[in-house]
Specification:
Largest sheet: 6 strands, parallel
Distance between the termini: 38 Å
Order of helices and strands: EHEEHEHEHEH
Number of strands: 6
Strand order of the largest sheet: 3-2-1-4-5-6
Shape: globular
Strand content: 15-25%
Helix content: 40-55%
CATH architecture: 3-Layer(aba) Sandwich
Oligomer: single chain
CATH class: Alpha Beta
Structural class: alpha/beta
């Protein structure tokens, strides 16, 4: 599977490492070159400096041949915009983005954008721990 990840923070770097270790082709795109230090030492994918809202940067990352795109920057708006570009302009089959705000996540889900809210996921996990 060819995967493009926008954002090389803790989550993006961890995901890139996991997918790379499973043999997937992974490209990571981030505005800050220092972010790539989070990638595992044995990371065999591609790390590119660039803005995931820029179609040329996405093309350099391999978006045109991507099977999946994940947007996990710190900005909800950037993640949503990049996910829409991947889905509607480049027709990437599997597109997911992180949205911190649970209310906005619900709205984007209604509009057909697959979004995950770590706020909601973590709150649910804590609730389950409290009930066990």
């Amino acid at each position: 599977m060819n995967v493009v990840i926008m954002g090389c923070g803790r989550v993006g770097a961890q995901l890139a490492g996991l997918l790379d270790a499973e043999g997937h082709s992974v490209s990571v795109l981030d505005n800050n070159a220092d972010s790539f230090r989070r990638l595992p030492a044995n990371f065999g994918g591609t790390a590119l400096i660039g803005n995931g809202l820029d179609q040329e940067a996405l093309k350099r990352a391999g978006i045109e041949k991507a099977d999946a795109f994940v947007a996990v920057t710190q900005g909800d708006n950037r993640n949503v915009m990049a996910a829409q570009i991947a889905k509607h302009i480049f027709n990437v089959p599997k597109v997911t983005c992180r949205i911190y705000d649970p209310l906005r996540r619900d709205l984007y889900q209604i509009l057909g954008l697959e979004a995950i809210s770590p706020t909601t996921v973590f709150a649910q996990m804590l609730k389950e721990k409290l009930e066990s």
